Amino acid sequence: MSRYLVTGGAGYIGSVVTARLLAAGHEVTVLDDLTTGVVEAVPEGADFVLGGVLQADVLLDAEYAGVLHFAASSQVAESVRDPEKYWRNNVAGSLELITAMRRAGVGTLVFSSTAAVYGDPEQVPIAEDTRTAPTSPYGATKLAVDHLITGEAAAHGLAAVSLRYFNVAGAHAGHGERHEPESHLIPLILQVALGQRPHIDVHGDDYPTRDGTCVRDYIHVADLAEAHLLALDAARPGEHLICNVGNGEGFTVREVIDSVRRVTGRTIPEIVRPRRPGDPAVLVASAARARERLGWRPRRTDLDSIVADAWAFAREVTV
Question: Tens digits of per-residue pLDDT, 71-84?
């Protein structure tokens, strides 16, 4: 049994990873300022500390086996409007966290990175050696943190793994998406099913895909959580391992809408809007490195099952 610090553990992915760590017998401290997280999401059995990543300097000591770092600002559109917030929270905050780890003698880090570092990819499926060219300050700040971690591993022996993922969906053990404002496709469509919005916008139906709408790679949040636990085991001193995690298949926007219709039995009106600037036609991950280095394979790849889990959670929190 080990003790871990989870920053952002009151958020969607962080709470699920915390639940999985607890189920594996570990002790967990969640550090979250609740800017976007909710205290109700913190799993029972975890210690909760209200605060930002700067608090890590006070919390961390040699009893911690590692840190899983989720705390970040993560809205692409907001990052374009307010880039300073993203450089301050994501980059400066991560630098302070890593400095606190080094002072406390905590040598293992798993970082929640993003596929947004690739921008509009030159090849699909996207491998880790694909050229990085982020199209937003959000993606740029996550890439900057990856560079920071690489330098820290080389200079100070940090054992680090960055996981770059695409569209996370579903729910696990009572933990699901509660973003405000919501920007992810599946919960937005579920809001239509619940009568909370009148329709779903489809941004472009003239892409070179099988039905004209964008293709995206969806990964179940429980599979992603499993990748984080495996990353802790795979981390090696002096190495910064970067792995893409995804299901290796893509679903179109219309396929996702149809899945929600099947699962919920509800009518989902849709309105076609113009393309959004910078939206690539296809984003699908190659998870070959994660399979090889982490021993990770997604097990929950059926779209209807992912949607069903998200639907059950959405109804639970709406009641």
Answer: 999 888 899 999 99
